[in-house]
Structure formats: structure tokens, C-alpha cells
Amino acid sequence: MDIDRPSDPQVSVVSSDGTMFHTTLKSILLSGTIKDMIEHIGEGGVENMGAIPLQNVDSKTLEIVIKWIEHHKDNIQPTSEEIKDKTADFIDPWDENFLEMDLDKLYNLITAANYLNIPQLLWLSTRKIAMLIKNRTPQEIRSLFNIEDDWTPQEIEAVQKENQWCEEK
Amino acid sequence: MEINILNLPNEILLIIFSKADNDKNLSLVCKRFYDVVTLLNEDNLKLEIKSNFLVNSDFDFDNVLNKTSKINLQINNQEMSKNFDEKFKFFLKLYGNRVRSLSHSNTTNFLHLMPNLKEFTLIRNFDEKNSISISNRLRKNSFLLKKLTLVLPIISNWEELKVFDIEELEIHANYFILDENCLKFIANCRYLRKFKIIDYRGSSNKISFDLLSVLPLKNLESLKMSFYNLKKENVIKFLETQNNLKSLSVSYFGKSIFLAICKIFTNLNSLELEFDKNFTGKNCLKCLNLKTLKHLSIKGRRLKISDIEDLSNFYLPNLESLTLHVNVLISQKIIENFSENFNYLKSLNIEIPSICYHDILPVILKNFNKLKNLSVKTNCEIQEHKIHINENFYTTNHSNFNLKSFDLKICCYEPKKLLQKIQKDFPKLEIYPEEFLNKHFELLNEKLPFYCINLNSSVDFDKFPKDCSIKFERKFKDENFIEIARNGKNEITFNIEKYFQNEQLKAMTHTPRKLKTIKLQLKPMQDDIEIENYVNYLKVIGQHVTTLTISNKTTLYQLKEIIVAFRNLKVIKFVDILFEKLDYKILEVKNKKIKEIEMIFKLDLINENLKLLAKYFKFPEKNLESFKLKILNKNIFHVEIYKKLAEEFLINQEQITNEREKWKNEEENYEYELTKFL
Asked: Where is the F-box domain (chain B) (predicted)?
């Protein structure tokens, strides 16, 4: 396994639509999924392993992911266990700015961060959506995310009854 | 690809929703959101109901249940009385729709009053009449029911039990329960992810459980089973179909099954193996695929030393917990290999023959630096093999050692020195080897800082040292408490929330011990005389108290009376208490010395609470040196609360600069602390 060597070799990844991206080993190892792949390549080393195919990430999203991992390659990243119950932290203004994107891109980024197992990126991107949901009414949430209301009036009444416990008195 | 939020998988929506803190509105958005919100199962209330409790109790359900949406109900009543039935039915009519999990022993009559039941545990045998009603009544809940646990049930009409959407099934069974109909039922549960079959050893040779019947179960992630009554032939065939399995626990298997497990499962997170006493597969552990494991448990009295050596040579970088119950002498070399190859081990549980204690324990302590929990026990009960440990038992300096809990059966010649050594070597130790301390009470005279008492254990109170300061950390029996209160000299601290009866407080008034810290749990007292007595006792015992914690159903009236009783109070802590009209003048006038107020919240804070909190924060009293807000609650998005307090309610930005934000991200609790230094 070559991941401990001091130099930072180049690694190539290929998106689901066939676009190839180049980045450094140090950056790409932020992805738990790719780290696992590289740890299992065995003899031959990183230099000879060829481009890593990422079937579940399209080129637009992969470009965004690579931008993020390259920016954070020198930061210590929490593991998925450590971040599981993380509730608040100082959000890096760079990250705040980075996540200024439309919802479609954000969904794709969340899916990619989940697939690639990048806990910090998943935390940041899901938090972004959570902040949009916070303090909004059901109708506001439906409009924001373009969701159809599939409740019947009777059903909604039943759910409201069930929810009564948390109505503020 | 264009995707909608509804296309995101449940696990992602769960992450998002848990941060959004808007369950009520989210559940009304659409059915998919509702399903996900119901998975957010954080605010459960465990409610144990005994027959007498419900019939005779004046327990204020409204007060408790207003704070929770989901009730986990455990009913422990042997005999149903008509009176209980009526009360229980009334209770369920009010709160039945909040019951999410039910564990009960003797009735099914009310299942229909719990329409949102997700987990159902049936504990006792049922007669045929009742079993019919289980099937019929559960069917009405079948859509929502996700977890079913059946402990030795006699169900004659399995075919009626149509709860096929369940994801978790646990059956404690013997050979006659696992009949053809039962197996058909299991096979029909196609969404099962977790399946446990606790198979009790039967007295008959009749073998009826054939895994071939449950071959359709292909989505299992977790499987636990023993092989007492299983037909062995089809086990391998069944295991071969389990491609998604992440957790496997098997016991009492033969060689062929073991080899099949080695071959089939290469990607498990958790593996528990309990070898049959007749199992003699030499070097068998070598065949296992362990690389991905986080948890490994191996129990086998017939395993050889070479097996353990094989295990110690695996490189398992992900392994966090290891349980090893074997009957071989584990050498220092093996332990060293373990520590080298299991770098991240946090928990180690070893049960071995006593005679090798001396050799391996110091090596364990020396080599496993990340270890947080250690349990080393002997499996040998023979008197001649009793372990003897002396003060040289521990290796030299372990001052950086992180060990917090330490469970060890010890018999030593020089316990005093050993105890001193333990304290020196494990500065972070919170839980001492209990058996050892209980046997050597006389040591407590030796300037122990305090002794944490768990009086449920068998303690000889005649020997209890009078000069030792005592800290009650866990449950204790009242009679022991009174004995300790009456005898002894030094300080006493209650680090456990307790409702003290008047009788107990009276006992405390005779103690020469000084009470330093007390956590009081209060119940509303209607009777003025009751309060007066209570306060009078507190006045006597409370004169040295500097730290008081008050929690639970305190009324403002009670609070005023009680605080007056503690004259030298410096720190007062309120747990889950917010008074709309709390006037700090109570604290100022009567208790000039109060310097610090701390408000601790374990329950959810709603907006109204926040506004009240902000008021406290905004206008603190002059004498105070600090005002702390601590939130110990996983459900709260802490930073938002902090921001809200800081931005909306504080007077100006200058004050914000005087605040300190501190985070402690510990294993269990999430502590958010906001302090205002005045």
C-alpha cells in the first residue's frame, strides 16, 4: 500500500458520464470509499492503478466534490462515527460560501458525499438543507422543495391529533 | 441527473430532519416525510406499569406525557384485576396513540387502543383463546409494526398472524414452538432485516426447525441463532443466500457450518461465535475473514492456544471490541500481538483460567493505550486456583492511561498497597473493581478521596469506615443510607438525584457528617405541615451545603422555602426547571452567598422556554458571579439556541464578548455551556 509515502502522487477519477478528473492522493483519501479501494489494490501501487471509476457521481457533481476535498486536504477530518451526533460547530466561511448552490446541485452533492463516504461534506450539505427546513410551515416546505401534498383531510387530522403533544400551550 | 428531495434515501433524510428540529411540521408535509419523522425516535418515554401502580397511583400522567410523543410501555402484571383493566383502558384511551412499543406479560385485550405500535414484545405463554386475539388484534396494527419479539409463545394460529411487514423478529423458542406454521410465518416476513432465533435446548430429541423453510429471507443484515434444534443439513444453504449480512452471531455449530461461515462471510462488521463444547477444529480461527470487523466475540472452552495465536496474528485495524472467553493460558506474546494488530481496541473482555492473570494483565495495561473498558475474569471456580495478586501486580508508570472502568476479580495479600497502586496507575479510573473494594472496606480509612457507593452490592456495613468521605453515585438502599448517615465523621455528597423521605432527612439530622453537595428531586407537597417538616430537616442538614441541585416537579412556593433552608449555598443548579416568575430577589435576600446559578436542560427547549431563559440571562442579580446555561440534550441544535440567545435577547454586543462558549463532545452527552460572567 502506497498511501503512507511522503510525496503526494496524482490520482485520476472518472465520473459516471465518462469525464476524467485529476487530483492528489491526499485529497482523494478524504473519501472513505476511495480510501478503501486504494487500500485493497495491493501490488502495483497507486501510480499504476489507473483511473478510478465512480459510477454513481456525474461530472458536474464530481467537479464540486474535488473542489471541496482539495480545499480541505490538509484538515483533519472527523470519521463518520465522530460526526454522527455532531450538533453544532463553527462553520468555515469558505464552506458557507461553497454551499451556495441551487437545490438540485445540493441533492447531488449530498448523494455523492454519502456514496463517497466523506462525513464532513455530508454533514455540511445536509445541515444546509436542514437550515432551510427549520422554522418553516408544512406549506412553505412543500413549496420550497416542490413536494405534492398527498394527505387526505382525514389523514392530516389524524396526524395532527397524534402530534398534539407538542403543540405549544 | 435531476433529483428531488423525495428521492434521497431515508438515512439521508433522517440526518437532515434530525438537524432541522421541526418534526411537527415535517410530518405534515407528505406521507414520506411522516414516515421518516416517525423514525426519529429520540424522545421515548419508558413507562413501566405494574398492576398496583396503576390502580393505586396518583401518578400525574399528564405532566409527564406532555413532554413526550412516544411511550415505551412495559406491563408487569401477573394477575389482571377488573380495576386494573378499567384504569388501563382509560389510560390507553388518552395516550394509546403515543404508544410505540409494548412489552407485556398477560394481556392482549387492548392492542387495538395502540394504533401506532411499532414494537411488540410478548413475554409469557398464552392460552389458545388469547393467542387468537393476538393474531386478530395485531393484524390491525400490521402496517406499522416493525419489530416483533416473542418469548416462548404458544400460538396455535400462526397463519392468522399477518404482520409480514416487520423488519425485526426475535423468537425465543424451543422445539415445539418452531413448528411448521411458525416457520411459514417467518418465511413470509420478507422485509426482515434482523432475525434472532434464541433456540432453547429441548429435552426431546425431536428436531423440527429446518432453515430451508425460511430461505425466502434474503434481506437480513443481522442474524443470531443457535443450533440446538436446527436441522444442520440446510443451514449452509440458508447462509449462502445471506449476501447483505453485516452482523452474525452463532452458537453451538459443527465444523462444516463453521467452515461455511468462513467461506461465505467476508464483509461482516460484527461476529459472535460460541463454539460447542465438542468442537475440536484445530487452527480453525485461521480460516475466518475478520478484516472488516468492528466487534468480535469468541467463546470456546475447547479452543487451543494455537487458535488464539492465530487470532493474535490477524491485523484488524477496525476492531473496537474484543470478547474472548477461552480455556487456555494466554501468553504475554499473544497480548503483545493483540495490541500490535488491534490498534483501535476500545473494549476488551477476557475470561480465562485464573493462573495466567499475573502474566497478562500488566501486559494488557501497558500495551492497550486506547482501551476504555477492560474486564478480565477467571472462568475457573476451583478454590485452589484462586488468584493471588500482590502489590507488584501492576507495572510501573501508567499515568497517561485512559482506562475508565475496570472490572476484575481479585484476591490479594496486600490490598492496601494494591489500592494505592491502582489509584496511582489509573488516574482517570471512575469505576473501581467493586468486588475488591467491598471486600476491603478497612482501606477506606486510608485517605481515599471518597468512596462511590453502590449499595446494591453485598456490603458488610459493620466494617464501613467512619472516617471516609462518601459520595453516593448510584442507587442505594434506604436502610444502608440511614446507617451511614448516623455513623461516620467526614463529608457526604449526593451525586444522585433523589427524593428524600422525611424519615431519611430526619436520620440525616443526627449525623455528624457534613452534607456538602445534594441533588434534590422534589414532588409537589400539598400539605403545609409536610413542607414545614421537610424544610426544618433541611435547615439542620443543609447548613454546610454549598452546592444544591433541584430537579423535577418543584413548585415556586417549594423552591422559596427550600432555598431558605440552605444558608451557605454558593452554587444552585436547576434541572429542567423554568419558572415564569422566578425572582432572583429570593436568592439575593435570603442567601447572600449565592454566586453561581446554573440552569441545566435535559428536555427539549421550546421557544417559550427560550424567551424565559433570555429574561434570566438579561437581568441577572448583582451578587451573582456567573450564570450558566447547560444543555444536555441530543435533540437540540445547540448552536441555534446559542445564536438565538446571543443575538435576540442580549442587550448589546459588548455583553456577548464577555461570554464563553464551550463544547464538550463526549461519548454519551452533548454538553453546551453558555456562561455569563458578571
From this structure: 5-37
Cβ pairs A/B, distance under 8 A: 127
Domains and CATH numbers, chain A: 10-152 (3.30.710.10)
Task: Say if CB B174 and CB B204 are below 8 A apart.
Answer: no
How, if at all, do strands B670-677 and B626-632 pair? antiparallel
pLDDT tens-digit profile of B215-233? 778 889 999 987 666 667 7
> Strands B194-199 and B168-173, how do they pair?
parallel
Q: Cβ B97–A162 below 8 Å, yes or no?
A: yes
Asked if B16 lies within 8 A of A86 by C-beta distance, the reply is no
Whether B382 and chain A come into contact, CB under 8 Å, resolves to no
Please tell me the distance in Å from B297's CA to the nearest CA on chain A. 21
B642 CA: distance to closest CA in chain A (Å): 10
Multiple choice CATH, B453-677, 2.160.20, 3.80.10, 3.30.360, 2.40.50:
3.80.10
Q: Compute the half-sphere exposure of residue B605: CA atoms within 13 Å on the CB side of its CA.
A: 29
Q: What is the pLDDT of residues B297-342, one digit of tens each?
A: 998 878 888 888 888 888 888 888 999 888 887 778 888 888 888 8
The answer, for A97 touching chain B at a CB cutoff of 8 Å, is no
Q: B4: which chain A residues are within 8 Å (Cβ-Cβ)? A: 107, 145-147
What pLDDT is attached to residue B464?
Answer: 61
3-state secondary structure B343-363: CCCCEEEEEECHHHHHHHHHH
Mean pLDDT of chain A: 81
pLDDT digits (tens, 9 = 90+) for B282-293: 777 888 878 889
Q: State ipTM.
A: 0.89
Task: Spell out the domain ranges in chain B.
Answer: 1-40, 453-677
